[in-house]
Amino acid sequence: MHDETLLDRIVGIVGPNGVVREADKSAYESDWRGAYNGVARFVVRPANTAEVSQVVTLCSEAGIAIVPQGGNTGLCGGAVPDDSASQIVLSLTRMNRVRAVDPDNDTITVEAGVILKHLQDLAEEAGRFFPLSLGAEGSCTIGGNLATNAGGTAVLRYGNMRELTLGIEAVLPDGTVWHGLRALRKDNTGYDLKQLFIGAEGTLGVITAAVLRMFPRPKSIATAWVALSETSAAIRLIRRIQSLCGDRLTGFELMSAQSVEFVTRHLPGCKNPLEHAAPWYALIELSDTQTEARLGDLLEEGLAGAFDAGDVQDAVVANSETQVEALWALREGISEAQNHEGPSLKHDISIAVSQIPAFIEKADARLNALLPKVRLVTYGHVGDGNLHYNVSKPVDVTAEAFKEHASAITDAIYEVTASFDGSISAEHGIGIAKREAAKRHKDPIELGIMRALKNTLDPKGLMNPGKML
Ligand code: FAD
Ligand code: 2HG
Ligand code: ZN
User: Fold this and answer.
1) Measured between alpha carbons, how far is 130 from 119 in angstroms, rounded to an integer?
2) What is the model's pTM?
3) Between the chain's N and C termini, which has fewer beta carbons within 10 Å?
């Protein structure tokens, strides 16, 4: 179909405001890091599910590929079109309505384009809590969170997007609308189809709305910043605090000294609150629905025990909301700070929590042998066994020279991950970044089932082609 005819038909569905002007397209064609770049034939912004369905039907009939996009904060290139100028970017950002709030069922039903932070605020207005929390929450969307099965910093207590979702509505690759917005906690009527679309990275259809779980609002929080001499101390500390506090342990984040050093160097106002530098830091958060939960006392008791056992070198428990925010800024700023240090290689791996120290030791040794003075920016949701084992170039190596080492570095990390029976993607997904690695590291039987599902639901291969599979 000629461009003009196609555009006329799209405008006929979404109206003139539903198509992004040529001059404004570029924001939709590159990812957050500028690591993936493409050219879209058109960027289309439907306002409701019926419009999504009609655009998808049109594309299916005309054989045009679609790249669904939310806030475009994904870290694997999944939301970016290829460079053929033939694919349509379907941005869900205009679909930002709340369809229902049901505090008695503890659920909220929202459209895919709702920004995560907005959803958190809506839950608060309803006297409830939506726990998904991550650095990009001011711009990522619920559709993107679902499509990547996002995790973040409270998975330890509340689970990832799969566990926070009761129902979804999706437009299938032929344009059919699947009305799966059930708000049920129990539904044993066959395959759990919503889970097919969650984590599918837009390869099976477009998620247009979801029923999400809400929780009681935490009324007290205690946060500590802890210096550790070794990673095994972090694992012992998780178990010590959990034994003491149960599921009031909401988050446990680990950061290498290198990670924190990048943040304090590049992000104004960020400062390590401890007097002496340490090889590792942990950020611990407890929360409770009771106002008088004495969480600070509990945290101090746990830390004192760990100090006596030689696991903790030093620690500070936040005594104000401002200090809590300052501690989280040190953690959440790592991605941005690392961008200031030139090109980086991101690896979002998971292994059994107990294996974290051995993994880091083995991977560090491999990388230091491969590229001396490589800067290892190791951090992440260690309570979930999820490390962002990110790599920045040595200071005295050019970006071009670093690029030549990229695949050897990534291969080495994934080999070490495989030696611990781990996963090459804990929470960011596969996208373009890990597609080839997934072919090598994912079970061929699982890949075969995934391909069969893809062929059944999307026989023309028009939903986000070239991503994940
Ligand atoms: P996009 O980037 O627009 O899209 C991501 C993928 O989902 C693409 O494949 C796209 O095609 C698909 N998609 C988007 N919307 C839809 C839809 N409606 N239907 C079907 N497919 C769709 N992730 C974590 O899990 N944990 C973290 O702690 C975390 N921290 C981050 C911190 C920073 C600073 C940044 C930049 C990113 C972080 N991320 C994290 C990455 C995370 O994947 C995204 O932030 C978020 O989940 C993606 O949402 P988005 O709306 O931006 O999706
Ligand atoms: C985080 O936990 C995010 O901060 C981003 O998942 C990780 O930038 C990264 O590699
Ligand atoms: Zn993360």
Assistant:
1) 7
2) 0.97
3) N
